[in-house]
Specification:
The chain is an alpha+beta fold. It is built from seven helices and 16 strands. The protein is globular. Bound molecules: zinc ion.
Length: 282
């Protein structure tokens, strides 16, 4: 196990979270690493090695998560996986897919860990998800080497407008999940090599204090190494690309009666060892 490295972004600048403080990466490294978090992800291994030798200074500001933006602000590609927990497939009345079911969240939907979510419809729903942040990436990555190509993980919410998603004759996943602000991620990219159990993390969501979803990531139908191998069989994965890995059961739209998000609701999304997102709907 390596020492934990956490990369966050404030005002678009890469920040190392260290002992409850924010260390500005470009300034502290004298320009060796760039201010842009996307550039830091391109040098992830060197960044982790450098980070592990850093100590915060008394002048570094205290971490305030309300100031953070999305920890990966401009990924080239955002993959998302549908129906990747069998209990969620069952509650949705669908067969568990034999191969991963892939769509995208357009990157402009990404949002900060404590940012407001402007509701684009009265049929919007929550989906807490583990988000994979690609490090080295590559093409046709074997499943056995997949985790070496991953920089880390963060928590994500795949907010979904169900009316748009299922209107018309053909499902419309990507647009229905990409409204402005519908992709909170964070609070930080946590290095995968610091996680004791990267394939078995507790995952849960609460809405207004009531627990709605609760599972473990080992219950994924297609686990993270298989998703990386499956996607990279066809496309090149590049540093900073994201994979939303699917949500466990307990979404609002399949409850009886159905529950949708309304202004004032607070969604708390939490994954063991990665932290918490808390987003208010407006
Ligand atoms: Zn989802």
């Amino acid at each position: 196990m390596e020492k934990r490295v956490e990369l966050a972004a404030r005002n678009g600048r890469a920040q190392l979270i260290s002992e409850g403080k924010l260390v500005d990466v470009e300034i502290r490294s004298n320009g060796h690493f760039p201010a842009d978090p996307m550039g830091v992800l391109q040098k992830w291994e060197a960044f982790c090695a450098w980070s592990r030798s850093q100590q915060p200074e008394s002048s570094d500001p205290a971490l305030d998560e309300t100031e953070l933006g999305p920890c990966v602000p401009r990924p080239g590609q955002v993959f998302a996986i549908g129906l990747n927990y069998s209990e969620h497939a069952a509650e949705a009345g669908r067969e568990a897919p034999e191969a991963p079911m892939v769509f995208t969240k357009f990157p402009s939907c990404l949002n900060g860990p404590r940012s407001d979510i402007p509701l684009a419809s009265d049929t919007s729903d929550w989906e807490v998800e583990l988000v994979v942040v690609i490090g080295k990436g590559g093409y046709q990555i074997p499943e056995g080497n997949a985790l070496e190509r991953v920089a880390g993980y963060c928590v994500g919410q795949d907010i979904s407008d169900r009316r748009l998603q299922f209107s018309g004759n053909n499902p419309q996943f990507s647009l229905a999940k990409s409204a402005r602000g519908y992709g909170p991620i964070g609070p930080a990219v946590v290095s995968i090599d610091s996680l004791e159990n990267p394939l078995n993390l507790e995952i849960q969501s609460h809405v207004n204090g009531e627990r709605m979803q609760h599972s473990r990531t080992r219950n994924m139908i297609h686990p993270v190494p298989r998703l990386v191998a499956y996607l990279s069989e066809r496309v090149t994965l590049r540093p900073g690309d994201l994979i939303f890995t699917g949500t466990p059961s307990g979404v609002g739209s399949v409850r009886d009666p159905r529950i949708f998000l309304k202004p004032g609701d607070v969604i708390r999304s939490e994954i063991e060892a990665l932290g918490v997102l808390e987003n208010r709907c407006v």
